[in-house]
């Protein structure tokens, strides 16, 4: 039997076409889903903007059918307060966005609201998202893009990370399949219901994702068709569920670049795998790196370091007396960082007197050595160097 909370979440999932800042404000004010759902049905004036948002669908009364359709494909509905809700990931991401300090969400500010419910088929989403990295890219990648995505996905999965992607053709499908081939888990975030597949021939792939320790996830009720705006909404969720996003073969103004923009706006680490200069499909990612808006990564170890030194390893001791051997550039960047505060990449470059791209590269190297840690607010020192002799 469904609980009142589950029925309310299913009802709101149908009548509210998220993301909804209006609904989020009511939740932030302490109202629960049951109270809000009842108010939507009654057309309570205190709903404010949510009243108009739900005008077209408020008389929907088939939420039990949605839940039955989900159960028929082995799916379930989770929501804030549910023991599977990935609260740590989502609260961090959308809490960062709500602070309004990121310049990356100016065009998407109204969409920077957390989901109020998620349909999930497969393993527990909270556990998968706790150790995850997102990997996205072109729908029609070239040979090199295919190889790069497969290599990264396999390597990340082999290190125990769930690979999050969008279930689409191209790099998304390669990411899912490669993670599975390495014996790892993967999460497919859809722009349609969890009982559907887009493209349709990915149904078997999505079944395999759910059956082999991963999950198929959507904000939309069973039976919901894919629509153009839903792909943009889906992109923010891909970015929110993982601490970092890697783009492989991302052209300017592509969906993958949109996910990278969301990553930056949600306090995640945007990353780009480099591509051949002769391939225009990589230009969008290269432009992000050149602008200091993404970090360049060449392997899974780079990714792991940037998303927070997942293994918690100690600094590499490879110099005399056990001290890390650093280049002059790395020393300049390390010295530019404040002992306790946090600085953005651009500010680090200015303090070190280096081009931004060079400073970013040094920050990646220092992170790998355990001397620097990337956080949503900026870079901070995570270790110490021996005092200099005279």
Automatic annotation (TrEMBL):
A single BP term in Gene Ontology: DNA-mediated transformation
Superkingdom of the source species: Bacteria
Start and end residues of each Smf/DprA SLOG domain: 111-303
Pfam families: DNA_processg_A
SUPFAM superfamilies in UniProt: MCP/YpsA-like (SSF102405)
PANTHER family the record matches: PROTEIN SMF
UniProt record similarity statement: Belongs to the DprA/Smf family.
Record protein name field: DNA protecting protein DprA
């Amino acid at each position: 039997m469904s609980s009142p909370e589950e029925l309310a979440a299913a009802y709101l999932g149908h009548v509210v076409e998220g993301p909804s800042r209006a609904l989020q404000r009511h939740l932030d004010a302490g109202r629960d889903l049951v109270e809000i759902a009842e108010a939507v049905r009654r057309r309570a004036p205190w709903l404010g903007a949510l009243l108009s948002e739900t005008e077209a669908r408020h008389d929907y009364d088939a939420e039990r059918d949605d839940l039955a359709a989900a159960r028929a494909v082995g799916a379930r509905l989770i929501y804030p307060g549910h023991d599977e809700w990935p609260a740590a990931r989502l609260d961090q991401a959308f809490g960062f966005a709500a602070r309004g300090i990121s310049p990356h969400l100016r065009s998407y500010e109204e969409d920077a609201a957390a989901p109020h419910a998620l349909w999930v088929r497969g393993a527990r989403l909270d556990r998968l998202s706790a150790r995850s990295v997102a990997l996205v890219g072109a729908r029609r990648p070239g040979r090199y893009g295919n190889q790069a995505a497969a290599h990264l996905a396999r390597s990340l999965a082999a290190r125990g990370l769930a690979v999050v992607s969008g279930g689409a053709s191209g790099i998304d499908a390669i990411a899912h399949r490669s993670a599975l081939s390495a014996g790892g888990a993967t999460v497919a975030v859809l722009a349609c219901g969890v009982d559907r597949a887009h493209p349709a021939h990915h149904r078997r792939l999505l079944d395999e994702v759910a059956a082999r320790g991963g999950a198929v996830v959507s904000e939309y009720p069973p039976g919901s068709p894919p629509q153009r705006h839903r792909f943009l909404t889906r992109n923010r969720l891909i970015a929110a569920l993982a601490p970092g996003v890697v783009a492989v073969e991302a052209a300017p103004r592509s969906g993958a670049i949109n996910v990278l923009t969301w990553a930056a706006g949600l306090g995640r680490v945007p990353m780009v795998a480099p591509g051949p200069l002769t391939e225009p499909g990589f230009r969008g990612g290269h432009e992000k790196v050149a602008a200091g808006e993404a970090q360049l990564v060449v392997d899974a170890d780079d990714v792991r370091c940037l998303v927070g030194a997942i293994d918690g390893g100690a600094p590499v001791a490879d110099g005399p007396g056990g001290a890390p051997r650093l280049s002059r550039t790395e020393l300049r960047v390390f010295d530019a960082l404040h002992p306790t505060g946090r600085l953005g990449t651009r500010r680090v470059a200015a303090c070190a007197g280096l081009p931004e791209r060079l400073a970013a590269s040094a920050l990646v190297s220092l992170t790998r050595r355990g001397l620097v840690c990337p956080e949503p607010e900026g870079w901070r020192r995570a270790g110490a160097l021996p005092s200099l002799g005279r």
